[in-house]
Every structure is written in structure tokens, then in C-alpha cells.
Write a structure and sequence with these properties.
heterodimer; A: mainly alpha; 13 helices; B: 286 residues; alpha/beta; Rossmann fold; Alpha-Beta Plaits; 2 domains; six-stranded mixed beta sheet; four-stranded antiparallel beta sheet; 33% helix
Chain lengths: 251, 286
């Protein structure tokens, strides 16, 4: 086994000690309770499915984000603030490799766990369709953007409390403010600016698209696609900035 | 062969220049003391060697390799810090197993050798300073390192724990392990090191064998039973009082002989210690 893989095993173990997954996996499975609830109330309409994937309503998504938040701020962040990262960086691993290992453990594994559980759940329920698949893609893009914000604030602020408050405030402001803006644009039928802010809260557009698909003739779907792309690009940028910062950080 | 080589290493933190061109070598097989007052740049230098602080300029080589470019060198170099830098909720056993998972080594043997069996389930946060240092040293040796760099390893230890640490260092050095040890507990460091590097204000002020550092100036320290009489016997020579000691620039045998002829008992006679050399090379002598 290569040195990097050996270090990765240690990094992974630190984040997923028992009972982390024993708590999170059942919570993610049980957190899908809103999917059948909305589908029944919505008479199995697509918008019922879309609504059930809005963060906060969907407990599984909230659990995935909570796990990532804990990993980033209270494991990786804490290791940096307290100097424990010294022990890992005096192992035979470069800073870039260590950062990627931490990122995969902190962020990618919770996302993949969520996606795996959702895919199996939706498939078994017979509702793994373009709507639910699209919602998984929308969530994944937003998740990568949000965790990118959390990573950057964690490495810049070097304080767990300040990182939690700042990232939650920033993300909430973007999500709520963007959602209100999108709602205003949609109901006033002013769709020219919608693609520009679609990344802030794609769920408003997704709900509108599934409620009244014929009214907008695909304009909302285009804005939605653009929003997902912007989220992915911004997320990648935030990770690159954090990595560059970490590479030259004095520890 | 050179185990550590630093050439003109410079590092600033904002406006503060911590290292102003640090250069020194550590010979393979030696136990080298890295000595300087607080804020002299010892920890920054060690962090540079550990790859934790990137220097602004200069060259760093551990066992002939650049720790920033060739991270595999960490398989042969161990670092021991003042406090154990590992997640404090991990137990001693988890810590040792993690280290063994990366570097290899026999955890059972380390547990036996360092007498850690009864402490295995303790969290790292629950360990006393002495025990934490013992655990850290046990972990550092799992990889069978060629070089151990220790930053103030005795800083928080009581005298018995310090003695134990230094005995282990001597034993490991006999087996061929090279050491660079930063410390401010100089009287005890003197017992274990054979070379010394003095650093002051971000610059190396002396580098060489311990004997050479101590011999410079040829001062000797005498503890006598009658200070006034001794002062009159040694009058006309370069003599001064330093605490209970008389410090005199003279041949030791000649001084003892003339004092004893005058009926002054010499209780202790010694050359300058690392403490005196420390004052001299770090501009703290006043």
C-alpha cells in the first residue's frame, strides 16, 4: 500500500469513528419520510417530489450537510486551529494530497453516502425518474458550493464558532435572499435576469417549473441548468482558493 | 555525512523577521543541542524542517532531501514536539496504531519497551506531560528513524522524567540515531549532547563541538570555602564573583594549587557550563 493510502486510512478513521455512520445512515434513510408524505398530498405530482427535496424539508440532505459541516469545522478545522495537523503533515504526504484526502473524507463521502441511499430508496419506491434525478444533481451542486464556503471560512477565520456563524449566515443570506429574488422575477414574468441568480436557490425555479411547465416553455429549465453549473464552478473555485491558502499556510 | 543542512534560511511573519539567514549542519550520529532564548527562532527553524512553515528563501535538507519536495523523507525522520500534537480524544493505543499504520513498526514491542500497557486506554488529553512525552517518543521510534528532531522535549517534564528522556536519547544515539534537540534546560542537555548550535535573534551565533563552545574564554568556575581569602590569593588576576562561584581566567591546576597552598578548600572546580556559553553566544550575558 502506498504511503498516501496509508495516511488516507488514518485521516478517514479520524472522521468516521463509531458511531458516526451508525447514526447518520439510519437518519438519512428515515429522513426520506417527506417524499411519500408530499407525494400523497400532491397526488403523485412532480412538484410533490421536487418539494420533498428542498433542504430543511428533506432531513437526509440536512444530515449530509450537518455531517460535512462537523467534519470540516470540528475535525479538519480543529486540527488546524489546535496544531494537530502537524502530526499528519509530518507523515509522508504532501499538503495538496492531505487537503484532497481531508476534502474527500469531509465532503465527498457524506455526499456519496447520501446519493447512494437516495438512489436505492427512490429506485425501490419506483420514483427514480428525471425529476428526482434532477433534484439529486441540484442538491449535489448546491452542496459542493455550500461546503466550499464552509471550507474557506474555516481556513480563513481559524475559529470554530466564527466559522459556523459566518458560513451559516452567508449561506442562509444567499439561499433566502436569492430565493425571494427568484420568486419576484418569476411571478413578474421578468425572466431575463433569472439565469444570473439561479445559482443562489435553484429550488424556487424547480418548483415553478414543475408546477407550470407549459407557461415558461423551458426558460426555467435553462435557468436551472445554468444555476447548477454556476454552483459547481463557484464550488470548485472556492476549493481551489482554500487549497492555495492551505498550501502556503504557516502551521 | 550531514543529517541536517540549513543554508541561509529566512522567514518573516508580516513585518517580523523570525529567521535572518539561519545556516548550520548536524552531523550524522551526533546529538546536537539547539539552544537559544525564547523568541530566538528555534521553534520556527524546527517547523521549517518539519515542513510546517515554508521559508521565504534558503535551503533545507534532511538526510540530503528537501522535506517540502520529497515527503518520503518523513519515513526516516521523526519529530517530537513540546506537546503531543494529535487529536486529544484518541487513546494512546489508537495513536500508536495510527502511527504504525503509516510507518510500520511493532506496536506491541513499543508498548513493552516504553512500559505503556496500563495507559493504552487513556485519552491523549488525560496524559501527564511526562507520559505524553514517553508516548510521543514511543511513536517516533516505530518507524526506526535515522534522525529525530525534538523541540523542547523536556520543557514540561519534572527532573525524573527529564532524566528518563535523556537516558533514552543516549541509548538511541548509541544505536546510531542522530538527534537535534532544542532545549532551555541547559544543565541537563549538556549531559547528552556532543555538539551545539546557538541561535539568537534569528541568527546562528555558534555551531560546533560542545567542548569548543565551553572552552572559549578559558574561564573556570570555583566554589571555595572562604571567598574573601580566595579573592586575595587570586588578586591581580581577572577574577569576578558569579553567585556563589568565583570566575577566573587562569589555568585550573595552577588556581587550585595556589588556593590550597593558602589554606582555601576548593569544593568545586569546573570549566564554563552550557549556561555560561548560552549567555555568551546569545547576548544575554549583560
Amino acid at each position: 500500500m502506498s504511503s498516501a493510502l496509508k495516511v488516507f486510512r488514518v485521516v478517514l478513521k479520524e472522521r468516521y469513528k463509531s458511531p458516526t455512520l451508525e447514526l447518520i445512515v439510519p437518519a438519512m434513510i428515515a429522513g426520506n419520510v417527506m417524499i411519500p408524505a408530499f407525494l400523497i398530498r400532491g397526488g403523485f405530482q412532480p412538484y410533490g417530489l421536487v418539494l420533498s427535496f428542498i433542504p430543511m424539508i428533506n432531513v437526509s440532505e440536512t444530515a449530509a450537510i450537518a455531517l460535512a459541516l462537523r467534519n470540516v469545522i470540528f475535525v479538519t478545522g480543529e486540527h488546524v486551529y489546535q496544531g494537530f495537523v502537524s502530526s499528519y503533515l509530518t507523515m509522508p504526504v504532501s499538503r495538496t494530497s492531505f487537503f484532497l484526502m481531508a476534502m474527500v473524507s469531509d465532503v465527498v463521502i457524506p455526499l456519496f453516502t447520501f446519493l447512494a441511499i437516495e438512489t436505492v430508496y427512490l429506485d425501490l419506491a419506483g420514483i427514480l425518474n428525471p425529476y428526482s434525478s434532477s433534484m439529486l444533481v441540484i442538491f449535489s451542486a448546491g452542496y459542493l458550493f455550500s461546503t466550499g464556503v464552509i471550507y474557506l471560512t474555516t481556513f480563513l477565520l481559524k475559529s470554530p464558532g466564527a466559522s459556523v456563524l459566518t458560513s451559516i449566515f452567508l449561506l442562509s443570506a444567499i439561499f433566502v435572499g436569492g430565493g425571494v429574488g427568484e420568486f419576484g422575477l418569476i411571478i413578474s414574468k421578468n425572466l431575463n435576469f433569472l439565469p444570473l441568480i439561479s445559482w443562489t436557490n435553484p429550488y424556487v425555479i424547480a418548483v415553478a417549473e414543475t408546477l407550470l411547465p407549459s407557461r415558461y416553455f423551458g426558460a426555467l429549465a435553462d435557468a436551472l441548468t445554468l444555476g447548477v453549473l454556476i454552483d459547481l464552478i463557484l464550488g470548485a473555485l472556492l476549493y481551489v482558493i482554500t487549497l492555495l491558502n492551505f498550501r502556503r499556510m504557516d502551521l | 555525512m550531514t543529517a541536517i543542512s540549513l543554508k541561509d534560511v529566512r522567514k518573516s511573519f508580516g513585518r517580523y523577521q523570525a529567521l535572518k539567514g539561519v545556516s548550520f549542519n548536524v552531523q550524522e550520529g551526533s546529538v546536537t543541542g539547539f539552544v537559544g532564548p525564547n523568541g530566538a527562532g528555534k521553534t520556527t527553524t524546527i517547523k521549517v524542517m518539519a515542513g510546517l512553515v515554508r521559508p521565504d528563501s534558503g535551503e533545507v535538507r534532511l538526510l540530503g532531501r528537501d522535506p517540502f519536495e520529497d515527503v518520503e523523507v518523513m519515513n526516516e525522520v521523526s519529530f517530537v514536539f513540546t506537546r503531543l500534537m494529535y487529536p486529544p480524544t484518541d487513546t494512546v493505543l489508537e495513536y500508536l496504531e495510527d502511527q504504525a499504520a503509516v510507518f510500520g513498526g511493532d506496536v506491541k514491542k513499543a508498548i513493552e519497551e516504553f512500559d505503556l500497557k496500563v495507559h493504552l486506554k487513556k485519552k491523549l488529553s488525560e496524559l501527564s506531560s511526562g507520559l505524553a512525552q514517553r508516548v510521543q517518543l514511543a511513536a517516533a521510534l516505530l518507524k526506526s528513524p535515522k534522525l529525530i528532531i525534538a523541540d523542547e522535549p523536556a520543557a514540561n517534564l519534572d527532573p525524573p522524567a527529564r532524566n528518563e528522556l535523556y537516558e533514552r536519547i543516549k541509548e538511541l544515539n548509541r544505536k546510531g540515531v542522530t538527534f537535534l534537540i532544542s532545549s532551555h534546560v541547559l544543565s541537563e542537555l549538556e549531559r547528552v549532547i556532543d555538539r551545539v548550535v546557538f541561535i539568537s535573534d534569528g541568527r546562528v551565533t555558534f555551531e560546533g563541538p560542545l567542548g569548543e563552545a565551553l572552552d572559549r574564554g578559558e574561564e573556570i568556575y570555583l566554589l571555595v570555602d572562604n571567598v574573601e581569602k580566595a579573592l586575595s590569593v587570586l588578586s591581580g588576576r581577572d577574577v569576578r564573583k558569579d553567585g556563589a562561584y568565583l570566575v577566573v581566567r587562569v589555568d585550573m591546576a595552577e588556581a587550585i594549587s595556589s588556593l590550597e597552598k593558602a589554606g582555601v578548600r576548593v569544593l568545586i572546580a569546573r570549566r564554563s557550563s552550557l549556561d555560561e556559553a548560552f549567555k555568551k553566544y546569545t547576548n544575554l550575558g549583560g
